[in-house]
Specification:
The protein has 161 residues and is of the alpha+beta class. Helix content is 23%, strand content 37%. It starts with a helix and ends with a strand.
């Protein structure tokens, strides 16, 4: 009977640890996806706030907007660790027709020193751009020229009300 009692507490501790790990994984920021699908992280577009989000080098091969998705094809040195790309948009718009929104693509290689040169498509949900536009200009349809550093031409994002 003592052997059954002794085995019970470690088993309960393992179950509690497993539940804590599961809850932690489900609540971890950056693991959620946007409404656009599983390949679009929810928090990869942010308003500039002075935080450092990475300045590791990369090359933009192409960029395009399709609906509410911005897709940027990038190449970078690495390949051994996860690389994070964040679209950092300006706090304010530049007045023109259409209004312009400066942005930069921040790249955090997470210390990856490997020398492969992968090329990947990164997708960004433009919901924050749309939301910021409406904060400045009110509800309804809109059009924003995204001026992303490193992208040779402005990308026009048009959306309905």
């Amino acid at each position: 009977m003592t052997s059954g009692s002794a085995a019970s507490p470690p088993s309960a501790a393992k179950g509690t640890a497993s539940i804590a790990l599961l809850v932690g994984l489900l609540a971890a920021p950056g693991c959620r996806e946007s409404a656009l699908g599983p390949d679009v992280p929810e928090n990869n577009v942010v308003v500039a706030d002075g935080r450092e989000r990475g300045d590791d080098p990369y090359e933009v091969n192409s960029a395009a907007i399709d609906g509410h998705r911005l897709t940027i094809v990038v190449s970078y040195s690495g390949g051994c660790r996860r690389h994070d790309f964040t679209l950092v948009i300006s706090k304010s718009f530049r007045e023109s027709d259409p209004v312009q929104l400066p942005a930069v693509l921040a790249h955090d290689a997470n210390g990856d020193t490997c020398e492969a040169y992968p090329t990947e498509s990164r997708v960004f949900d433009l919901a924050l751009v749309r939301s910021r536009y409406r904060q400045f200009y009110g509800p309804g349809p809109g059009k924003v020229a995204l001026r992303i550093a490193g992208v040779p031409e402005d990308l026009v994002y048009a959306f309905d009300g």
